[in-house]
């Protein structure tokens, strides 16, 4: 008699389990979706899986309580528990990292304990099937076949979702971010700069160099310990120019001063504070990167076309400026729609350009030859800008544009991009309290993951600088240094961020 009642007891156990699990998810559904989006297995499908799991749990629970559907519901319970068990097994053995819990019972258990609990539930569901089929089938072949097919189907579904989700997230992302688990240690050091007008000019093994928009001829040096700040006043060879925005860049042992509105570049050698003109009247430009002491990458206006172009400025040789008009691609006006930031990866020597208003960044070699066009994970592929031409010929934005990317720094084939857009299933509160940094490889189309950098009071990230050991951030009047939690080159270049 007891064995005849056993399927009934097992059915009620699973009904209570599924109802409890479903209700706990519904009570905090937004958080459940966010946590699914952070799953290293199911990120790409967090939307429909969040609803699908709830529906399956509630439908199965209801069917378990009805005599006519109890047998089918036990098979469904067996399949669900196999799927949940395989999911946890893959998380523990094949995922890039161990995510946070998904609520309910799992919050009270470790992943290992939950794997054991699920395994027991798989055996319990199989026992219910065994006893309910005992009086129905003359042999066990059909029952064994059904349970085996159910287990294979559940396992195959989870594995297929895992493999396809990994491909979608890393190769064809649908704007679902995967937040890496502690890629940065807590702040390693900080220093009060006194003003919020500083920007990164460069770095070497012993220093970080800063420029200051309100004191454009002052080069600020921060020592490796982040304790000492020294300021050097640079003397220019000739100042008879109408400068508007003088900038400083440092690539030791040299430093450079320029203002692209005036076609002049100065160079000095540290610690000499006298800067001399090395380029005059070669090119007007709006962006510049230093390749070496006599070669530069520039963004300039393409003559006769009123649109930006990328090119090189070479101080040796008769033809100093070489433009490549095919690098930047016009979408609407060729000016605002192609605006962006030009930076160098100091380790690989590649030059990168990130569009502000579309989901793309460009990778070029040191000769400014195009290597590849890569996408960021957001979905804005066409710049949402509306430019108008005034009666005097001046171009203006007719409405505020939708900015996609704000800041970028690169090191050793990895891009750290400060995004301006909130992805799917991300909490609004987090965006008010932090800036999000997305990480990409530059040798192929591959999204690595993302992390937050908390605001400093009311100040968000204003400037970024990555080295092989640290991420430096200027926020308000503070310079903050974060140490990468693992060796960045091995982990980030692998594209999997293992153990992070």
UniProtKB/TrEMBL annotation:
InterPro entries tied to this protein: Methylamine_util_MauE
TM region(s), chain numbering: 6-23, 44-66, 72-94, 115-132, 144-169
Stretches assigned to the Methylamine utilisation protein MauE domain: 7-130
Superkingdom, natural source: Bacteria
GO cellular component, one term: membrane
GO BP of this protein: methylamine metabolic process
Membrane topology: Multi-pass membrane protein
Keywords: Membrane, Transmembrane, Transmembrane helix
Protein location: Membrane
The protein's name: Tellurium resistance protein TerC
């Amino acid at each position: 008699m007891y064995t005849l009642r056993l399927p009934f007891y097992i059915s009620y156990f699973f009904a209570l389990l599924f109802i409890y699990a479903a209700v706990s998810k519904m009570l905090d559904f937004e958080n459940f979706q966010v946590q699914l989006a952070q799953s290293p297995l199911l990120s790409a499908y967090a939307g429909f899986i969040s609803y699908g799991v709830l529906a399956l749990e509630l439908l199965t629970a209801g069917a378990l309580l009805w005599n006519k559907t109890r047998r089918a519901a036990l098979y469904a319970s067996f399949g669900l528990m196999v799927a949940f068990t395989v999911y946890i097994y893959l998380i523990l053995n094949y995922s890039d990292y161990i995510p946070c819990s998904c609520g309910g019972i799992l919050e009270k258990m470790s992943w290992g304990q939950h794997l054991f609990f699920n395994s027991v539930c798989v055996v319990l569901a199989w026992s219910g099937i065994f006893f309910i089929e005992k009086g129905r089938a003359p042999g066990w072949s059909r029952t064994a076949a059904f349970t085996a097919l159910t287990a294979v189907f559940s396992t195959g579904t989870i594995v297929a979702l895992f493999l396809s989700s990994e491909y979608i997230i890393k190769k064809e992302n649908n704007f679902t971010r995967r937040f890496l688990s502690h890629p940065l240690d807590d702040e390693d050091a900080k220093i009060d700069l006194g003003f919020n007008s500083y920007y990164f000019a460069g770095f070497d093994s012993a220093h970080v160099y800063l420029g200051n928009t309100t004191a454009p001829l002052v080069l600020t040096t921060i020592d490796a310990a982040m304790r000492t700040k020294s300021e050097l006043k640079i003397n220019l060879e000739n100042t008879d120019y109408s400068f508007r925005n003088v900038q400083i860049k440092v690539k030791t042992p040299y430093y450079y001063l320029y203002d692209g509105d005036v076609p002049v570049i100065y160079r000095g050698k540290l610690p000499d504070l006298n800067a001399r003109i090395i380029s005059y009247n070669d090119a007007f430009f709006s962006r510049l990167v230093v390749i070496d002491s006599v070669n530069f990458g520039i963004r300039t206006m393409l003559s006769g076309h009123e649109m930006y172009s990328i090119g090189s400025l070479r101080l040796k040789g008769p033809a100093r400026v070489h433009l490549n008009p095919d690098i930047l691609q016009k979408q609407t006006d060729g000016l605002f729609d192609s605006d962006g930031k030009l930076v160098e990866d100091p380790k690989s020597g590649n030059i990168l350009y990130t569009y502000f208003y579309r989901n793309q960044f460009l990778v070029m070699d040191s000769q400014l030859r195009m290597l590849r066009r890569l996408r960021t994970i957001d979905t804005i592929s066409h710049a949402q800008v509306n430019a108008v031409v005034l009666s005097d010929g001046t171009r203006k934005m007719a409405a505020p544009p939708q900015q996609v990317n704000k800041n970028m720094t690169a090191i050793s084939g990895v891009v750290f991009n400060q995004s301006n857009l909130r992805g799917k299933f991300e909490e609004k509160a987090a965006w008010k309290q932090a800036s999000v940094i997305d990480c990409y490889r530059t040798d192929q189309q591959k999204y690595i993951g993302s992390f937050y950098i908390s605001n400093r009071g009311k100040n968000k990230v204003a400037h970024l600088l990555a080295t092989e050991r640290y991420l430096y951030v200027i926020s308000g009047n503070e310079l903050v240094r974060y140490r990468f939690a693992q060796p960045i080159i091995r982990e980030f270049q692998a594209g999997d961020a293992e153990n992070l």
